[in-house]
Every structure is written in structure tokens, then in C-alpha cells.
Amino acid sequence: MTKEWAGAGDVGRTLELLWSGVGEPETGGPTKPGPKRRLSIERIVTTAVRLADTGGLDALSMRNVAAELNVGVMGLYRYVPSKAELIDLMIDHLNGPADELKAHRDEDWRTIMLYTARSIWQLYSEHPWLLQVGRSRTVLGPNTVAGLDFALGAFSGTELTDREKTAIFSAVEHHVTGVAHAHLLREQSAQHTRLSEDEFWHVQLPYLEKALSTGMFPRLAELTDEDAFAADGLESMLFGVNALLDGIERQLESRRGG
């Protein structure tokens, strides 16, 4: 399902674009002489995100972004080298703004992890094309780093090692991503097949009932809850995250007891 890869462009150039001006004081001095630039990186990125949100990654191209901005495609290349770097900029843009994290910094570690899980889920829900970008080598921009710093801060003062802290964050992130991926595929399957979700399972129901009546599948036959398989994506995600955090909590209690 992966269509694009993070970090596939000129990583050095992407980092320059991401971190330009970050941490530098506002001078308030006069602007440099010369013609004003028609575009800003912020405007380019937000336009690209809007295109991807509307039409998916298939709609995202430098030519389409340029058309939306009413500029020539060669003019767009003056700001962003290629689509690969643009995707990295889009990912970091969606991980922000970092200021929103400040209101949650003083909460307990479990609340912060649940907030993190819900935030990741919301990100995929609003921008499902992100699930089609391979991000094992995400370029670390300011918003991405701020999010990681926030998540790791949840474990300050605990008995966890640094390696365990990063492992917990990764486990939460991977679980949310996995459930979101399965949920998205389920939604897309109705668009690419002849049957709706209800019609698909209705066709199979007589065969399943006959199979269960044979006694060959006793565990399935024991299920009496009609909604046994009806959990939506968010419910499944939160159940798994809470189970994971329960285990972490028991580990911490055991260490304190020891």
C-alpha cells in the first residue's frame, strides 16, 4: 500500500527548509533588498496537504501544487526541490503545532500516552494518505522532534531506562498505526468491490451458520454477542493501548515494590 517514502529526497536540503529560523531571535530589522518572494514554504505545504487530503497521494504532484498556487512549476522548484522533499515538509507540518502540547506536559504518564495515541489516530483519520507513506526514516523537523520530546517527557521521574521509554512510545505508535491501517483498508474495500460492508457479510452469513452447526469450530459457535466483531477502529485502538499501558503500569509498580 506504500506509495511514497519519507526521507527519499535531498535530506540535507529538507533539513535546511525545516529548521530555517528555528531558535533564532527575531531581529525586527529591515528586510533584505530585492524583489519579494511570491510564496512561502508554509503556503506551499498547506496547499500540498489540502491536495492530498482531497485526492490522496495520486493528486499530489509539483505540477498540481503549482497550479493551485497559480505559479509556474519551475517557479515552485525554486522553493522546494521536488515532491520527495515536499512530502517530508508535509509530515512535519502535520505533527504540529508544538504549542498545543504545552497544555498537557504536567499530566501523568498514562494520560500523556493516551493523549498521544488519540492524537496519532486523529492525524490518520484526517489525513489517511499518511498511511501510504513509508516513514521508517522520517526526517526530523521541529514539530516531529517536539512531539517525541513531549512523549518521552511523560516518563520523567519513573524507573524506566531510556531504551524502555523509547520502546513504549514506539509500541504505542506502531499499535495505533496498525489499527488505523486495517481500518482504512476496510473502508477502502467497499469502494473497490461491488458489495457494501453489510452486503459482503450478509452473503457469507448462511455459509458461516452452516459451518458453525457442524461442531468443527466450537469457539466461534460459543460466541453469543451479536456485536462480537463490531468494534470500530477507535474502540479497537484504545483497547489495545490501554492493555499495553496496563502492562507498563504493573512493571512500574513491581519495580517500586522491589
Keywords:
single chain, 258 residues, mainly alpha, Tetracycline Repressor, domain 2, 11 helices, 2 strands, transcription, transcription regulation, TetR/AcrR family transcriptional regulator C-terminal domain-containing protein, DNA-binding
Q: Poorly predicted ranges (pLDDT <50, ≥5 residues)?
A: none
- The counted number of beta strands is 2
Globular, elongated, flat, extended or rod-shaped: what is the shape?
Answer: flat
Note the beta-strand portion: under 5%
Could you explain the architecture of this structure?
This protein is mainly α and about 260 residues long. It has a domain at about 5-20 and about 35-185: Tetracycline Repressor, domain 2 (Orthogonal Bundle), CATH 1.10.357. It is built from 11 helices and 2 strands. It has helices spanning about 10-20, 40-55, 60-70, 75, 85-95, 110-125, 140-155, 160-190, 195-215, 220, 235-255, and strands spanning about 5, 135. A two-stranded parallel sheet has the order 1-2. The longest helix has about 30 residues, at about 160-190. The radius of gyration is 23 Å and the shape is flat. The protein starts with a strand and ends with a helix. The mean pLDDT is about 90.
Summarize this entry quickly.
With 258 residues, this protein is mainly α.
Topology (elements, then pairings):
Elements (H helix, E strand, L loop, with lengths): L3 E2 L5 H9 L21 H15 L6 H8 L3 H4 L6 H12 L14 H18 L6 E2 L7 H12 L8 H31 L4 H17 L4 H4 L11 H25 L1
Parallel strand pairs: 1-2
Helix pairs in contact: 1-5, 2-3, 2-5, 6-8, 6-11, 8-11
Protein name: TetR/AcrR family transcriptional regulator C-terminal domain-containing protein
Keywords: DNA-binding, Transcription, Transcription regulation
Pfam families: TetR_C_1 (PF02909), TetR_N (PF00440)
